[in-house]
Write a structure and sequence with these properties.
Radius of gyration: 18 Å
Number of helices: 9
CATH architecture: 3-Layer(aba) Sandwich
Bound molecules: adenosine-5'-diphosphate, magnesium ion
Shape: globular
Strand order of the largest sheet: 6-7-8-3-9-10
Largest sheet: 6 strands, mixed
Strand content: 25-35%
CATH superfamily: P-loop containing nucleotide triphosphate hydrolases
Order of helices and strands: EEEHEEHEHHHEHEHEEHHEE
CATH class: Alpha Beta
Length: about 260
């Protein structure tokens, strides 16, 4: 079971901003996408989510072309958290989380309320449920959006089936303890028949938590593989255009700039 991109190409204004990308996200796998600003990470994520139509190439979910899914069936198997929090209306946090619920009925079913309270606890947003979203800090908003993405894929313990979670820099506004918390939650999700693809800026986090890393540069996958194959001084210095060192300390990679 995989979410795959094959020979993916996205062109804008005569330029290929995604240029021949192959990706295969397996269940039980946490893959990170890293790379400099403008490398094409967000565009790739939108295409993989089925929200942006590629110029060429194909996206398949468990072997089926993504465009053959109805929006509601697609929403049941894949959830996306984008970079921006562009909610402009004044909803309560609990209402936003309930909106993530797309299963049996829309709105406040008993199941929805159970899922929301369970996941709000896990994501550390229980105290925010009664707050207006617009009054939250950037980090609090990001934690709520993260929780909403999980609500969409929630299912009872005994129910199985593939799920894919795609997240674009979900920790960019979080302090270090919440940042680790999010990655730990994502790692737990991989134990429950979920494939996770996460765009990360922090190379240390990416190397510590990922099973596989895709290093993007100028619309292409420059390198991919296990962290030790990608998180290398020569590769990273080349792509980021600045000296980057990598040290192996007791099997754990440490990345730093000079
Ligand atoms: P990243 O997330 O890696 O920073 P993006 O995927 O957001 O990169 O963007 C990749 C490149 O494509 C950038 O140079 C960006 O300016 C360009 N780009 C993205 N979306 C569009 C668009 N709709 N029209 C034109 N150029 C775009
Ligand atoms: Mg981006």
């Amino acid at each position: 079971m995989t979410l795959s991109a094959d020979e993916l190409m996205v062109s804008r204004r005569g330029q290929n901003i995604i240029d021949g990308v192959d990706i295969s996200l397996e269940l039980g796998n946490l893959s990170a996408v890293i790379g400099p600003n403008g490398a094409g990470k967000s565009t790739l994520l939108s295409a993989l989510a089925g929200d942006l139509e590629p110029t060429k190439g194909s996206i398949t979910v468990d072997g089926k072309p993504i465009e053959h899914f109805s929006p509601s069936n697609l929403a049941k198997v894949r959830s996306v958290m984008y970079q921006s929090n562009n909610i402009v209306f004044d909803f309560l946090v609990e209402e936003i989380l309930i909106m993530g619920w797309i299963r049996d009925t829309f709105g406040r079913s008993p199941f929805a309320i159970k899922a929301v309270s369970e996941l709000a606890e896990i994501c550390g947003v229980s105290e925010l449920l009664g707050r207006s979203f617009l009054t939250l800090s950037g980090g609090e908003k990001q934690r709520v959006q993260f929780c909403r993405a999980l609500v969409q894929l929630w299912r009872p313990d005994q129910e199985f089936g593939p799920r894919y979670l795609l997240l674009d820099e979900p920790t960019s506004n979080l302090d270090v303890s919440y940042e680790l918390g999010v990655l730990e939650i994502l790692k737990d999700m991989t134990e429950k028949e979920t494939g996770v693809l996460v765009v990360l800026h922090d190379l240390n986090l990416a190397s510590y938590f990922s099973d596989r890393i895709y290093l993007m540069n100028k619309g292409r996958v420059f390198a991919c593989g296990e962290p030790s194959e990608v998180i290398r001084s020569d590769t990273l210095s080349d792509v980021y255009g600045t000296p980057i060192s990598v040290e192996d300390r007791n099997g754990k990679l440490h990345v730093y700039t000079h």
